[in-house]
Design brief:
Blueprint: E1 11-16, H1 20-29, E2 34-40, E3 53-56, H2 62-70, E4 74-77, H3 84-92, E5 96-97, H4 101-108, H5 110-119, E6 127-130, H6 135-145, E7 150-153, E8 163-164, H7 169-179, E9 185-188, E10 195-203, E11 209-211, E12 215-220, E13 223-229, H8 235-252, E14 256-264, E15 269-275, H9 285-288, H10 293-302, E16 315-322, H11 330-334, E17 340-343, E18 353-361, H12 365-376
Parallel strand pairs: 1-2, 1-4, 2-3, 4-5
Antiparallel strand pairs: 6-9, 7-8, 7-9, 10-11, 10-12, 10-14, 12-13, 13-16, 14-15, 16-18, 17-18
The structure holds adenosine-5'-diphosphate (ADP).
Adenosine-5'-diphosphate binds next to strand 7 and strand 15.
Length: about 375
């Protein structure tokens, strides 16, 4: 299908934000009868070179969002750090916006997410929300749980920024004081994590729903570094993960991709957090599943039938490429059998997610091959023992 000749009959899907998720949506949009329009904040955004149309605008500006919504048939998001009131108003004015502001709110505000989901019986760690820093409240929570609290900013954090997991009460207190200057503070009991699992659920605007199999995620310093299918855990535990994710999808009413991150303990499965958009834990689906999370996200917001989520291989591993001091060698990475390399086209910066590698195969050598390729590309992330 030629996009040049059929533009007028194609659905125009707008994506707010020009990061790597919008870029990967643009890649998958090539197989779909739609025109992908991205509103980014910088001409150098990751998605700028691959989107069918790219314009500049701020996700915080009601004016820019309204203008952009007027140019497309439906609107979705690369990230959730947007003006929720403006997004709400767009839906009210008849624009098709997915997910809605009510759904995005769960991802934007960790305190709202915990409070609302816990009230509905979807439990995470024991928690407390502090409107601002208060020594007594902090001490009471630490005393009741008899642990050093995990401290989280209510909003604005990502990849472990805005989260502190520490053994030092003083460090946790100082971090909470700092977070409290610009955000509500979420205190959580530290969970003794046996494994971290993520489930991607996709719900179409017509109500159809599919899910990908649960995957094992590994984090270092709060940042996801590796995702593997199969998760290699007891099927009953994985079934529990899938059931919780399905319930979260019901409660948050998320149209499009919803990522549900869970902690598996020696006795239980508890919710970590949710993201109401395509997610790092689903990047493996580009080569590793019959339909990628990006294509299914676009199908869902367009109201089209959802694609098959069955894995293409018995084993799939994705490893992130995180910037170190200098870039690595793509040729060496390409020499690793089966390595699919994704470069987000971002400028090299230490600590920044710059791309990822996926390897699919018949055995668990996919894990070491994915790491070899990511290391050849110069990732600073280290494989978790
Ligand atoms: P982000 O939104 O930045 O991804 P998360 O809330 O998912 O942050 O936390 C990042 C990581 O920190 C988690 O994947 C987990 O490894 C660790 N973590 C978060 N909360 C807890 C907790 N209550 N107990 C133990 N570890 C935690």
């Amino acid at each position: 299908m030629s996009k040049d000749t059929e533009l007028t009959t194609q659905l125009r899907v707008g994506v707010v934000g020009g990061g790597q998720l919008a870029r990967m949506m643009a890649e998958s949009a090539r197989n779909l009868p739609l025109t992908l329009c991205v509103m980014g904040s910088d001409p150098g955004d990751s998605a700028a070179e691959l989107a069918d149309e790219f314009s500049l605008g701020s996700p915080h500006s009601a004016h820019d969002l309204t203008l952009f919504a007027g140019e497309v048939d439906c609107l979705t998001f690369d990230h959730e750090l947007v003006n929720l009131d403006a997004v709400h108003a767009l839906t009210h004015d008849g624009h098709h916006v997915y997910p809605t502001a009510d759904s995005l709110r769960f991802a934007v505000h960790k305190a709202y997410q915990r409070t609302t989901l816990a009230a509905l019986g979807i439990l995470g760690p024991a928690f407390a929300v502090l409107e601002k820093f208060d020594d007594d409240e902090f001490d009471i929570f630490a005393a009741v749980t008899e642990r050093v609290p995990v401290v989280k900013a209510d909003h604005g954090g990502y990849d472990g920024r805005g989260v502190l997991v520490s053994d030092s009460l003083d460090e946790a207190r100082i971090f909470a004081q700092r977070v409290g200057t610009s955000s509500q503070i979420l205190l959580e009991e530290p969970v003794d994590i046996v494994a971290e699992v993520a489930v991607i659920v996709v719900t179409s605007r017509n109500g159809e729903r599919v899910a990908y199999p649960p995957v094992l995620t590994r984090q270092v310093d709060g940042m996801c570094v590796e995702v593997s299918y199969p998760a290699g855990l007891d099927p009953a535990i994985l079934n529990e993960c899938a059931l919780i994710a399905d319930r979260v999808a019901d409660v948050t009413g998320t149209v499009g991709v919803l990522a549900v991150e869970l902690f598996v303990t020696s006795t239980d499965v508890v919710l970590n957090e949710v993201a109401t958009r395509p997610h790092n834990s689903g990047h493996w689906t580009i080569e590793g599943a019959a339909t990628s999370q990006f294509e299914n996200h676009l199908r869902a917001v367009a109201g089209w039938p959802l694609g098959d989520t069955t894995p293409t291989s018995a084993f799939v591993t994705m490893v992130n490429v995180v910037g170190s001091e200098r870039p690595g060698d793509p040729h060496a990475a390409l020499a690793i059998p089966g390595a699919h390399i994704h470069d987000y086209g971002k400028s090299w910066r230490p600590g920044r997610k710059l791309g990822h590698v996926t390897v699919c195969g018949d055995d668990d050598s996919v894990v070491s091959r994915a790491w070899m390729a990511a290391e050849a590309l110069g990732t600073s992330a280290r494989r978790k023992p």
